Amino acid sequence: xxxxxxxxxxxxxxxxxxxxxxxxxxxxxxxxxxxxxxxxxxxxxxxxxxxxxxxxxxxxxxxxxxxxxxxxxxxxx
Length: 77
Hints:
The protein is an alpha+beta fold. 21% of the residues lie in helices and 26% in strands. The chain has one helix and four strands, in the order ββββα. Strand 2 and strand 3 (33-37) form a beta hairpin. It starts with 18 loop residues before the first strand and ends in a 9-residue tail after the last helix.
């Protein structure tokens, strides 16, 4: 999927599902301390027999951008 999107977990896809998305909190460093924050890293597992890899990557990147910049939902330009 790419270097910027990774996870140590993966799902097993069972019919009739074609993909699974997991959203979790993560420990992060803030002012030299480790705290838990709702960073919302995403993990996507896709059955590539059903969904094209390029489409899956594009959808995940679009979702990541919308989470990071929710104002883009309302931008029309």
